[in-house]
Structures are given as C-alpha cells and as structure tokens.
Specification:
10 helices; binds adenosine-5'-triphosphate; Rossmann fold; alpha/beta; 10 strands; six-stranded mixed beta sheet; 40% helix; single chain; four-stranded antiparallel beta sheet
Length: 235
C-alpha cells in the first residue's frame, strides 16, 4: 500500500471538518474523493501533505508514519500537492515557475527531462515559457500547476479540484494529462467536484459527506450507484 489513512480526525477550533475517515491508495491507482462543498475533501488532502494538523489518527506513506510532519519533508518523501486555486507564482514566468518546483530535486538530468515532459504534454506552455504566468488563461494556469507537479517528481500526486472554473474542453485536456501521468507511473489521489469526470478516470472512489466516508468502492460501480447518481451525477 502506498498511502494509508487511518481514523483521521481534523478540527478547525470547534469545527470538526474530518471525523474519523480511513482509506488507502495502492501504487499505480487513481483514487478519487468526491463530495459536496464543505465535505472535508480539501482538509483531508491538506492534512496528508502536512498543511493542516491531524487531531488524531494516522497517515502512512510507503509504510512510514508521516502524520503531522513538515510539508517540505513530505514533498521529499515523494508526495506532490497541486493545491486548489492553482497557487502558481503569477509574477514569475512559466519557466521560472517550473524551476521553482524543481528546487528540491537532486538529479539534474531528471530535472531537465521533466521540463521536456511538461512541454510535450502542454505545447501551449512551451510557447509561453518566457511569459509572466499572470498573462496565462485559467486553463493554462492549471496546466502549469500540473506541470509543476510533474517537475517536482513525487510518486504520489495529490490534486485538489483540478477542474474548478475551467471550460469543458480544458477540463477534458487536464483529465487526459492526469490519465497519462498515471500511465507513466504516477499514483494519483484526486479531489474533484465533477464527480462524473472523476469516476470516469478513477479506479476507486470514496464519497465524503460532512467529514465521514459514506460510500466507497470501484469507481465504475459508483457511477451506477443510485445514491451517487442522485446526489452527485445529476440524475
Ligand atoms: P470544497 O469543495 O468547497 O473545497 P471540501 O470538501 O474540500 O469543500 P473543506 O474545504 O475541507 O471541504 O471544508 C470542510 C469543513 O471545514 C467546512 O465546514 C469548512 O467550512 C471548514 N473549514 C475549512 N477550512 C477552514 C478553516 N481554515 N477554518 C475554519 N473552518 C474551515
């Protein structure tokens, strides 16, 4: 097992955002967390990557306990986070953003190859590599955020709402890249409000409702589960 979350609780003061969830991700899988606004998806991802504090429970990655350790150490161990709202450095160029993402990498050859890989996946970023990122469209900024994850080079890529605010065509493009990253060896944990897209690409899925996991199983089963259809697939 690559990632194992066990009985995780996360609070913001008196607010109990995550109330004892357990789930796992095997190497090579795409696993998705779906659920309504405020269900606790972002909090869960941020706790895995060390940005929020777990009140109790454990998180293991590659059999090591990573609960509440510093975010930079979690990156070094091989978890890369693509946060909600993209969080690129808008005053830097596309290339500078990619170089920043490579700062923790210690293999110059791999670093160079990863820039090429990003430009191959997203030719639009290659054309715009000297452009300040603030001039990119929303979709291009999301491509850059995903590109940064590729350059960082972790084994597990944690993506928070990659489709948010993007036009359907761009969403398709981003999901194609997520699948390609997976085929090339990355394990993916995806938090996504677009349940149909998420379940279409994932191997397994967990439904979060107000801090609890209420449904789990193979993604293709959830696509036809009446409870999921009614609450999350609009039919
Ligand atoms: P969304 O899709 O809207 O981002 P989510 O499933 O990711 O939703 P979270 O963002 O994890 O949900 O929020 C879970 C709960 O924790 C919500 O009730 C939210 O209001 C609360 N919450 C999140 N961040 C904070 C914070 N920094 N301080 C206080 N409460 C917070």
């Amino acid at each position: 097992m690559l990632l194992e979350v066990n009985d995780l609780h996360v609070n913001y003061g008196a607010i109990k955002a995550v109330k004892g969830i357990s789930f796992y991700v095997e190497k090579g899988e795409i696993v998705t967390l779906i659920g309504a606004n405020g269900a606790g998806k972002t909090t869960t991802l941020r706790t895995i990557t060390g940005l929020e504090h777990a009140a109790s429970g454990t998180i293991h990655f590659k059999d090591k306990d990573i609960t509440n350790i510093a975010p930079h150490r979690i990156v070094e161990m091989g978890i890369t986070h693509v946060p909600e709202g993209r969080r690129i450095f808008t005053n830097l160029t596309v290339m500078e953003n990619l170089k920043m993402a490579a700062l923790l990498r210690k293999d110059p050859e791999g670093k160079k190859a990863s820039y090429e890989e990003v430009f191959e996946l997203f030719p639009r970023l290659k054309e715009r590599r000297m452009q300040p990122s603030i001039t990119l469209s929303g979709g291009e900024q999301q491509m850059l955020a995903v590109g940064r994850a590729i350059v960082t080079g972790g084994d597990l890529v944690v993506l928070d709402e990659p489709s948010m605010g993007l036009a359907p065509k761009i969403v398709d493009e981003i999901f194609e890249v997520i699948q390609r990253m997976n085929q090339e060896g990355k394990t993916i944990l995806l938090n996504e409000q677009n349940a149909f897209m998420a379940l279409s690409v994932a191997n397994r899925a967990y439904v979060l409702e107000t801090g609890n996991i209420t449904i789990e199983g193979p993604a293709k089963d959830l696509l036809t589960d009446p409870r999921v259809k009614e609450a999350y697939l609009g039919s």
